[in-house]
Write a structure and sequence with these properties.
The protein is 31% helix and 23% strand. By secondary structure, it is α/β, with parallel strands linked by helices. It has a domain at 1-70 and 186-257: Rossmann fold. The strands form two sheets. The protein has a six-stranded mixed sheet, with helices on both faces. Strands 2-1-4-5 form a four-stranded antiparallel sheet, with helices on one face. The longest helix is centred in the C-terminal third of the chain and has 17 residues, at 165-181. The termini are far apart. The mean pLDDT is 90. Bound molecules: adenosine-5'-triphosphate and magnesium ion.
């Protein structure tokens, strides 16, 4: 039996700025509705790789395909949540979330913006401006803005790194429920994180990249069944071994280049 066409496929991807390679020979295949977590040392090219998947930067070598077609430029089918929230300070919370739809000339016929305001606990802040919100709330606006366009692919670059531990757990829980709730749109995701536990909690699969130039040094399926919650996943018997495996891959490949 042949496998279905991957939602996103990276074939021997290499990216360089000038002469210095940033990532090299990255091959990955992700099926629809999977959530892949990427971890790796600072500067190994994680953000660069996500930007390439979003069609924002050219490849030096290889191909990236969405449903079997090469990605050459940004498409509304792929949404990215940036490491720093990237909200428009002059727009209200509601206008920030509506932004992607308006750029595409779409109207919010399903009332999705209101639903996201509710789900993200932002309903009462719809008319506020970003500077009036805490860091965690701003990040929730960023996530809601990406989800409003109901993308087929969601690329998340350290989406919870700037918030405190309790807010992070809450947002992780929200992301899990959005994933479980997204049966209708079946979003596929790639999430970059420095937090090993976050990768184990959220990922169907985890990829570890080596020091720059980033290469895949570990790629495996997380053997902890869903549903997982921030409160219980560490109690699964497979957890210590999974964590050690990622930690060792990171530390064995962390020599300076
Ligand atoms: N537009 C650019 N022009 C030149 N060099 C760049 C550019 N963007 C990134 N780089 C370089 O590419 C390398 C990888 O950067 P990238 O931001 O992808 O790393 P990262 O893995 O996301 O790091 P971090 O974990 O700190 O966010 C770095 O050395 C960076 O200086
Ligand atoms: Mg980065």
């Amino acid at each position: 039996m042949s496998l279905p066409t991957p939602k996103i496929l990276l074939e021997h991807v290499a990216i360089a700025f000038g002469k210095r390679p940033v990532v090299q020979d990255i091959s990955l295949a992700l099926q629809e509705h999977d959530l892949l977590c990427i971890v790796g040392p600072s500067g190994c090219g994680k953000t660069t790789l996500l930007r390439a998947m979003a069609g924002l930067i050219p490849l030096r070598h290889g191909r990236i395909l969405l449903d079997g077609a090469v990605i050459t430029r940004p498409t509304p089918r792929i949404a990215m949540i940036f490491q720093h929230f990237g909200l428009f300070p002059w727009k209200t919370v509601r206008a920030n979330i509506e932004y992607g739809l308006s750029v595409q000339g779409r109207r919010d016929e399903e009332g999705i913006v209101t639903r996201l305001l509710e789900v993200m606990g932002l309903f009462e802040y719809a008319q506020c401006y970003p500077y009036e919100l805490s860091g965690g709330m701003q990040q929730r606006v960023g996530i809601a803005r990406a989800l409003a366009v109901q993308p087929e692919m969601l690329l998340l670059d350290e989406p919870f790194s700037a918030v405190d531990a309790i807010t992070r757990e809450m947002l992780q829980g929200e992301l899990i429920s959005l994933w479980e709730d997204s049966q209708r749109h079946r979003t596929t995701g790639v999430l970059v994180t420095h937090d090993l536990d976050e990768a184990i909690l959220l990922g169907d699969r985890i990829v570890v990249l080596s020091n720059r130039p980033g290469r895949v040094c570990l790629d495996f399926k997380v053997p902890i069944p869903r549903p997982r919650t921030p409160g219980d996943f560490r109690f699964h018997p497979a957890y210590p071994q999974v964590r050690r495996q990622i930690w060792e891959a990171l530390h064995n490949n962390h020599a300076p280049d």
